[in-house]
Structures are given as structure tokens and as C-alpha cells.
Amino acid sequence: MSVGYVGVQWNRHKRVYDAILAAGIVVFLLVFVGVGKLAFRGSEAISDPILFMRAFGACALLMLHVILCIGPLARLDRRFLPLLYNRRHLGVATFVVGLLHGTTAIGFYHGFGKVNPFVSLLTNNNNFGSLSAFPFQLLGAAALTIMFLMAATSHDFWLRNLSAGTWKRLHMLVYLAYGLLVLHVVLGALQSQRNPWLAVLLAIGVFTVVSLHVVTGTRECLRDRRGPPVQPLENEQWIDVACVDEIANNRAKTVCLAGRERIALFRYDGQVSALTNVCAHQGGPLSEGKIVGGCVTCPWHGWQYRPQDGQSPPPFAERIATYRVRVQGRRIFLNPQPLPPGTAVEPARFEEKPDDA
Amino acid sequence: MTRSHRKWHAWGWAVLGPLVVIGLFAGLINRRPIPLEDAAVKETADTDRSPVRRVSPREADR
Q: What 3-state class would DSSP assign to A147?
């Protein structure tokens, strides 16, 4: 391995996030078990293993819904961005709660026979042709396997070793895990539990997650197709992309060019610089960040780059592509050909108006 | 995200979304019928899918 392991860099934000997360999980489990004990008594009483198994399963499913909503909500409204910061902690916690559900379920339904519980899980039901008797536990096991893969590779150590692109593609498997889990619940718990509110709640969750992702995904793809076309590499092309006054100081404008990666156009201290919009960490949208301490700061996890050359400040060594810009009057012109990552580019200067400050 | 990831994301949900919704409704519509002998008795929350399978009177007579 070429990249050394560095432990999780704890800070106050992460501690607060995790404390709220842990408290939320404990409260959910206590309420679920408490209500289950109170609502079903006497001959209807639910045994403890079943009650806890359901509590863990419901909690993990709810957490997965929250995780899947954070991304598109942050695209639609910046106020959700703080939730994105530690989304991986939420993902690992979801896997742990899901694992508790899986362990109690396998122990209770497969642990009392002569056959190995895992062999029993894989072989005891072969009704693949029947929806109502489908081996739904296999769907849950497949989803849990995907979530294990994601939890095991969630650390930045794996992100660097696998490369941001591969890591991101791997973690997109969570969408498949979600589909498997919905079917696991529909073909499992909802086959025997006839309370209509359970089906309604799940339908609301599915509708929310699917519609949020379809809407934001379509919107972002349409944005990518807009913008002026870019000529072949050998042509010296300058595109009029914005007016200086459109961009607030220490902020950026996203430039979309047809068929190209987006570009972040930053304005700061009477200057304009252009960088790729893709953060080297997890591909966060740099144009939605701001300049902090003279460095472009990614809105997702706070990775920083100098606007003049796209290099992270020491001791970090990340580099991103830069672009040439020039200002004529108040208009900003951009050369759309990316320069190699870390290439220093003279910022385009302009005269600030007195009211700009 | 890169342009490629955005495209994968959009296409992924355009395909997966309808499949999940269809799976949800197909599973709910095809729920197994409640046996007549059990329908009269209020279903207990704990007895469904217990490790030891309960045998209906009709099956026991076979």
C-alpha cells in the first residue's frame, strides 16, 4: 500500500454528530421496545428476541432512508450540508444496527437446528417463484453484505487507495442495497403483519427517496448538457462565462460547458481564478464552497486548495486542475481547456467598485 | 461528483426507482391469504414465522 493509515481525525463537530446519532439510536430502540411491550400484552405478548429483532430492523431501515435523503436534500438546499459532513459515520452505524438485526434473526430462526445457521439461511427456502413465500431473508443478507463492504472501506485510507472514482462507484452500491432491503421488508415482515400503516409508512419512505433522487439526478444531468459547446483542444477558445458582479466576494460561480466537467469560478480580493469543480477527496462541488483563509474550501468535508494553482496548502499534497481566465471590463472570459493539476495560473485582476467591499 | 458519476446516478435511479416501486406494490398485492382458521382468531404479533412451523388442522389430518 502506498498510502499510510491515519486514524479518524476527531473534532468537535464529529463528536457532537456521533453523540446525537448514538442517542437517537438508543431512544428509537427504547421507544420501539417500550411501545411493543405496552401494546402487546398477555396472550399477544411478543417475545424479547423478536421485539429486539424488529426494533433493530426498523431502526436500520429508517437510518438508511435518512442517509439516502441527505445527498439530494443537500443538492436542493445548502442547509442540509452539515448532515453530509459525517454521513459515513451514519452509514457505519446503520450497518452495525442492521448486523444486530441479522444476527438476532439468524439466531432465532436458524440457530436451533442441527444445520449450520448460515447453511440453513441459504438453503431452507427455495420458493423463488412465489412472491408471498419468497426467501426474503436472502435479500436482507445480500443488502447486509453490501453494507459491510461499504462500512469496511469507509475510511479515507481506502478512498485514497481505491481512488475517488472507484470508491464512489463502489459506494453507489448502497442504492442496490436499498432496493434489496425494501423487497426484504415487503416480502418478509409485510407478508405477515397486516397493519396497513406499516405498508403506508414504507410506501412514503420509498416515494420520498426515489422522487428526491430522480428529481435531483435529472436536474443535474440537464445542467451538464447546457452551456456553450467547447471546441477541440488545439483551438484557442475564450468563452464569456460571467460578469464579475454576479459573483460575491470569496464565493464562486459554477460554469457548465456542454460535454465537459463543471468549472468553479472564484472571485476574491479583486481577482478571479478558475478551478475544476471536482474536489480530489470525494468529488464534492467546490463552486458551492467558499474561500477560507485564502483557500478554496470544499463544502462537503473541508478539503482546501489554493485558487492560484489548485494545490492543497502544506502539509497536504492534493492537486486539482486549473483554468486560464481573463477579465475584460467586468466580463470574465475562460479558456475551457484544463491545465494539468497543480499548474499555477496568474489570477485575472479587475478593479473593485467601492461598494464591492 | 464528476459528470460521469452524475450520469450514472441519474440513470441508476431512473431504472432502480421504478423497479423498487413495482416490487413494493407487487409484494403488497400478492400478500399470502390469511388462512380461514386463523382469520377468525386475532393474529398474535409473536406467532407468525416462529421457528417451529404451526400445522393447520387440515394438514394434520393428512
A: helix
Give A52-89 as a DSSP string.
HHHHHHHHHHHHHHHHHHHHHHHHH-GGGHHHHHTHHH
Residues 213-252 of chain A with CB under 8 A from chain B are: 213-214, 217-218, 220-221, 224
Whether B45 has a pLDDT exceeding 70, the answer reads: no
Place of cell 451538464: A224
Q: Which of B7, B19, B21, B31 is the best residue to mutate to test the A interface, defined by the most A CB atoms within 10 Å of its own CB?
A: B31
Distance CA A77, CA A149 (A): 30
**Domain range A12-224, its CATH number among 1.20.120, 1.10.8, 1.20.58, 1.10.3470:** 1.20.120
Among chain A residues, CA nearest to B39: A194
**Residue B5 falls inside a structural domain:** yes
ipTM topping 0.95: no
The three grid cell numbers given for residue A251, joined into one nine-digit string: 464565493
Question: Which regions of chain A carry the CATH code 2.102.10.10?
Answer: 239-356
Calculate what percentage of chain A has a pLDDT beyond 90. Answer: 62
Could you tell me the pTM of the whole model? 0.82
Q: Which of A133, A175, A191 sits opposite B12 (nearest CB)?
A: A175
Region of residue A189 (left: phi > 0; alpha: psi -120 to 50; beta: else): alpha
Give the bridge partners for A319, in sequence order. Answer: A311
- Residue pair A102/A141 in contact by the 8 Å Cβ criterion: yes
A239-356 belongs to CATH 2.102.10.10? yes
Most distant CA pair in chain A, distance: 83
Structural element, H or E, at residue A349: strand A348-349
Q: Is A128 on the interface with B (CB under 8 A)?
A: no
Q: In whole angstroms, what is the distance from residue A88 CA to residue A90 CA?
A: 5
